[in-house]
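Is this the right way to post structure tokens for a design question? Let me know if I should format differently. Anyway, here goes:
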């Protein structure tokens, strides 16, 4: 956790609060690589949409960031028009010292307004959604340069090298959004057919 322009006492309180309140399940799921089947099973909502806003605020002695995502397509979960993703971490002005404080958390995933994303979300409490497996649960949807179809980077472990005039660019290999959608739907169909499976 890194704090800038912060009184030492405030920094100490933040460290103590973080140790006490960081959910154990968030640490566990972000500490190891998850398979797509595990992510689909763990997610209460799987949505494709656009990030509309992302704002940090103080919650007690901790900083949390609320990001509102417009839901264009719900692959799993309810049919809400928007979802709010609440994460521990971010930058907010301290209400007492009046200076910006940044709280860096390993499970924090940046959601930038204007991004089109595919998100795997779990509800820790009613109305409070977090991203499954930290960075593993966020995919940025981009148009593939070759096909112009919506695609998801699925690197960085699987990379491709794109040859250009005078240089080579290493880029994450992309998967069409349609392929990811089909895989998710197949896994959901399999789960629904298994007695006792998570709905």
């Amino acid at each position: 956790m890194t704090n800038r322009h912060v009184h030492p006492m405030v920094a100490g309180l933040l460290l103590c609060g973080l140790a006490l309140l960081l959910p154990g399940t968030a640490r566990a799921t972000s500490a190891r690589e998850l398979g797509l089947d595990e992510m689909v099973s763990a997610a209460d909502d799987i949505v494709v949409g656009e990030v509309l806003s992302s704002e940090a605020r103080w919650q007690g002695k901790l900083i949390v960031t609320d990001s509102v995502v417009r839901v264009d397509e719900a692959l799993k979960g309810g049919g809400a028009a928007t979802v709010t993703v609440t994460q521990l971490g971010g930058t907010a002005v301290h209400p007492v010292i009046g200076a910006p404080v940044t709280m860096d958390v390993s499970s924090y995933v940046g959601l930038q307004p204007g991004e089109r994303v595919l998100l795997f979300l779990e509800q820790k409490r009613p109305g409070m959604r977090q991203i499954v497996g930290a960075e593993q649960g966020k995919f940025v949807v981009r148009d593939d340069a070759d096909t112009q179809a919506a695609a998801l980077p699925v690197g960085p472990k699987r990379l491709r090298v794109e040859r250009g005039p005078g240089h080579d660019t290493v880029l994450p290999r992309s998967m069409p959004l349609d392929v990811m959608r089909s895989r998710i739907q197949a896994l959901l169909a399999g789960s629904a057919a298994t007695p006792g499976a998570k709905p």
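Format looks fine. Someone answered above. Worth noting: The mean pLDDT is 78. Residues 147 and 176 are 9 Å apart (CA to CA).
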